[in-house]
Amino acid sequence: MKAVLIRDFGDRSKLEIADVPKPEPDEGEVLVRIKAAGVNPVDYKIRSGLYKGRMPLELPIILGWDVAGIVEKNGFGASRFDPGEEVFAYARRKLLKNGTYAEYITLPESFLAYKPKSLSFEEAAALPLAGLTAFQSILQKGKLMVNERVLILGATGGVGSFAIQIAKAVGASVVAVASKKNVAYAISLGADDFIDYTSVDLKTEIEQRFPDKFDLVFDCVGKETLEQAYHFVKHGGRLVSILGQVNEELAEKHKVLFHYVFVEPNVKQLNQFTQWIGEGKVKVHVDHKFPLEEVVKAHELIESGHTTGKIVLTV
Fold first, then answer.
1. CA-CA distance, 252 to 16, in Å (whole number)?
2. Which candidate, 226, 181, 223, places its Cα nearest to that of 199?
3. Cα–Cα nearest to 109, from 82, 132, 71, 78
4. Around Cβ 15, how many Cβ atoms within 10 Å?
5. Which CATH number fits domain 2-127+284-314: 3.90.1570.10, 3.30.1330.10, 3.90.180.10, 1.10.287.70?
6. Segment 88-128, tens digit of pLDDT
7. What is d(CA 102, CA 99) in angstroms, rounded to the nearest whole number?
8. Which residues contact 50 (CB under 8 A, 6 or more apart)?
9. Which three-class secondary structure string do you get for 247-305?
10. How would you write 104-173 as a 3-class SS string?
């Protein structure tokens, strides 16, 4: 089968399209014919070597953690899905080795959920990592409830786009922070208010417009933005980040409960997205699609840090 792999860490020149053996499903596993694979910032970070020492890995590595496709074959003891059924999954396993930038992948059947019928394969492949990250940040760790108010920093990227919709699905009020060019997009997802961080001082703007602060702040930006975020949370409120660790001094000073989220596979949560999609509460925005052979272009775009929605490889 064809796959995109890296034999060493480095820049985009390390991305190689190669012929590799088609995998066979082990006990409890399913062979999936991949139709589309999501592209995420973590992919280029792995390629660059930033995950060396953070996760077990074995070169060469086929990149990719998002997948949508068709069940082709069941291993012994795998019986939840029949060949021909359409599925999607967050495909991260303990060992960084065999990912979704390929024509086939084997996965434990427990990782797989039925693809939402109304979504294309490209849309379904754009959902798992970003959607689950938003779910686990907003609801599981952030514990956002009806009538609470959430500030989303980096609100129009892949994760932020789902975070807006999840917050609205549970009856919360959403203030989105992103650049001015994305205001219409954020409002279309359900944001109640918008702050263009490029035209104001964010801290001053929030202090003036939202003196009561926020029950939850969700950070998808990190660095200086995360350091500012402690000032935006009510005493006893929650701050969740996917890009930074706790500042104990600021957390204590502002009486903030901090959580860092590194997304985990969760089929029950994927099924909740299927329900929301059926109810019209969540939609998936695919910003760009590239064939597998144009993976370098996909990585160039995801590295820019200024995408709206998701990037997908078609297989």
1. 47
2. 181
3. 78
4. 19
5. 3.90.180.10
6. 999 999 999 999 999 999 999 999 999 999 999 999 999 99
7. 7
8. none
9. CHHHHHHCCCEEEECCCCCCHHHHHHHHHHHHCCCCCCCEEEEEEHHHHHHHHHHHHHC
10. EEEEEHHHEEECCCCCCHHHHHCCHHHHHHHHHHHHHHCCCCCCCEEEEECCCCHHHHHHHHHHHHCCCE
CATH class of this structure's domain 130-260:
alpha beta
153-173: pLDDT as tens digits: 999 999 999 999 999 999 999
* List of residues 6+ apart from 137 with CB closer than 8 A: 159, 163, 218, 240, 242, 259, 261
Beta-sheet pairing, 112-114 with 149-153 = unpaired
pTM, two decimal places: 0.96
AA letter at 142: G
DSSP-derived pairing of the beta strands 310-314 and 29-39: antiparallel
Buried b (16+ CB within 10 A) or exposed e, 218-256: bbbbbeebbebbbbbbbeebbbbbbbbebbeebeeebeb
Torsion sign across C-alpha atoms 217, 204, 173, 188: negative
In the predicted model, is pLDDT for residue 306 greater than 90?
no
Residue range 14-59, pLDDT digits in tens: 999 999 999 999 999 999 999 999 999 999 999 999 999 899 999 9
∠ Cα 100 268 62 (to 5°): 10
DSSP 94: S
CB 175, CB 194: distance < 8 Å: yes
Q: Which amino acid is at 146?
A: V
* Alpha-carbon gap, residue 33 to 27, rounded angstroms: 18
Q: Where in the chain is the domain with CATH 3.90.180.10?
A: 2-127+284-314, 130-260
Query: By the 8 A CB rule, do 49 and 81 touch?
Result: no
